Amino acid sequence: SAIYYHLEAVTIGQAFKDTVNLIDYLNNLALDYYRNRDYKQALDNHKQSLSLAQLSKLGNKIYRSYHGISSTLIDSAGADTSLNFLYDEALQYLQIFLAEENEKIDAELYADAYNNAGLAYQYRSKTDLDSAMFYFKKSEIFYKKNELLEACVPISNIGLLYMLKNDNKNAIQYLKESNLLALEEDNKKILRINYQNLAIIYDELGDPKKAYDYLNQFILYDDSIFAEEKSRAIAELQTKYETEKKEKIIAQKEKENTLQEIENTLQERRIERKELTNRITIGSSVLSLIIIGLLFSRRQLRKKLEYEKRITTERSRISSDLHDEIGSTLSSISMYSDFAKQQMESNKQEEAMSLLDDISNNSREMMDDMSDIIWTINPRNDSFENVITRIENYAHKISETKNIQLHFNTSENFDNIIMQMEKRRNIYLILKESINNAVKYSGCANLYLSIKKNSNLIDIEIKDDGKGFNINKEQDGNGIRNIRSRAEAMHAQLKIDSEPGAGTSIHLQLNFT
Fold first, then answer.
1. Which residues contact 144 (CB under 8 A, 6 or more apart)?
2. Are 424 and 376 in contact (CB under 8 A)?
3. Quick check: 321 pLDDT over 70?
4. Confidence grade of residue 294 (pLDDT, cut at 50, 70, 90)
5. Is 182:143 a contact under the CB 8 Å cutoff?
6. Contacts with 167 (C-beta within 8 Å, 6 or more apart), sequence order
7. How far apart are CA 371 and CA 11, in angstroms?
8. Closest listed residue to residue 494, CA positions, set 509, 479, 512
9. Which of 189-198, 221-230, 267-276 has the lowest mean pLDDT?
10. Residue spans per domain, the chain
11. Which of the 8 DSSP states describes residue 325?
């Protein structure tokens, strides 16, 4: 509805040649398209506004248009990695904007422009972090100078840069400072980002308690934002439905009036039959357009519901992982603690020490499980190369406990392969389950792990020279059911070969695109 009324305003401004207000109308329309993520339309309207402002030599409005164009270019590039070149164009507009004393025009806009420049430098090249840091700190200075709570945004960005530089001490300092301002401003999106990054940092520092606490805060704000966006989407759909309902009633009344006029005219004048036929045709066209519009709205609603379903599924999966993998372990630790206490009171030292060993082992397993969950949601691990590195470290670590010789072979560079979180999680857990089974149950002396790239396919093979098993009798044993289920979820080809005395081979092939 906002786009509709701003389009009307632009039409009126053009009709009356009201250039000064037309510039504002075009910028407002661009903001509506920007909020709807229609960056092409947003950019077109901002550039029309800039052309009019330049022709009229209206300095204030020229630089507001520069700011709008640069913001849109940055978000366009962020939404599509193939448009990375737009960051350079955005920086050109920002340099023009920041060259003038626009702080006097609008201090908040000026501070935001510095923040946008930092984003452009950060994302156009992963190596140019110093330039990004310079502009984020300039943004922080101008926000604080004008006592604006929005300073939480560049401060959060500075914290993220320190994370990327592996300077966790400064990262924690800036993220916590950003949180103080964000809490005062009630900026939930910044709080969500900060808590997620703090959880990742404390996990890397080996502090699972703080990592778990910040992960819970991240989930809390993520749920809150999801609920707000859902309510807003429902309200927008309700408004749209009521508007369309009123328009339909009006159209129906107009149609009835038109038909009545046609009937009266037919009775009075046969000469006007041709004109009446044309009116009926026009009415039918209007009705067809309304039907097409309703079908389009239904399709858009279906897309939104599908998106919400995907978000809900992912949230449920994370919640289930925390409950199943950590909750059950905590219950076991609690039970073992009570038994150990009873044994100590009964002076059964040997039994008590055995229970304490169980508590220690369960605690380590819980820390590994939580580390896997946090590693999975960390956006820095999107590269398949990170999956290979993590599974190689795990394989070496667990093989050494049984004096098993690990033969790890990967001859390709997988850095340029980016995977969705669910797919790399499934691959990692299949590999981890397979390696764990081989080490614990096969009695092997050698374990072979091969990961290769073939065209647009990834070939993975895990083999051991252990005792093997009858695949027909143990279809659901040793985690095979979980392995098959995860392979099916990725539409991957899975082949498991084993027989007593001949070892076991697991071959996984999947498309990485």
1. 151
2. yes
3. no
4. low
5. no
6. none
7. 57
8. 509
9. 267-276
10. 2-233, 236-309, 382-511
11. I
DSSP code per residue over 187-221 = -HHHHHHHHHHHHHHHHHTT-HHHHHHHHHHHHHH
Q: What is the pTM of this model?
A: 0.48
For the cut 70, the answer to whether the pLDDT of residue 444 exceeds it is: yes
Q: How far apart are CA 27 and CA 109, in angstroms?
A: 14
Residue in this structure with the two tokens 């990834």, named with its chain if needed:
458
Domain 382-511 CATH class label: alpha beta
The secondary structure of 427-454, three-state, reads HHHHHHHHHHHHHHHCCCCEEEEEEEEE
Longest Cα separation, the chain? 114
pLDDT tens readout for residues 347-374: 777 877 877 777 776 676 667 767 777 7
Tokens 């010789």, residue? 405
Instruction: Let me know how many helices (H) and strands (E) the chain has, helices first.
Output: 17, 5
* Separation of alpha carbons 409 and 63, rounded Å: 56
| 148 vs 155: CA distance, rounded Å | 12
Beta strands in 156-294 (DSSP E): none
Asked if residue 424 lies in contact with residue 381, where contact means CB atoms within 8 angstroms, the answer is: yes
- Tell me if domain 2-233 and domain 382-511 are identical in fold: no
404 DSSP assignment: P
Beta carbons within 10 angstroms of residue 33's beta carbon: 21
Distance CA 339, CA 351 (A): 9
Q: Measured in whole angstroms, how far is the alpha carbon of residue 245 from the centre of its chain?
A: 35
What is the rounded distance in angstroms from the CA atom of residue 364 to the CA atom of residue 210?
A: 16
Would you state the torsion angle of the CA atoms of residues 235, 238, 244, 249, taken in this order, to the nearest 10 degrees? -140
Per CATH, the number for 2-233 is 1.25.40.10
* Dist. CA 70–CA 97, nearest whole Å: 10
- Of the given ranges (302-316, 372-386, 387-401), which has the lowest mean pLDDT? 302-316
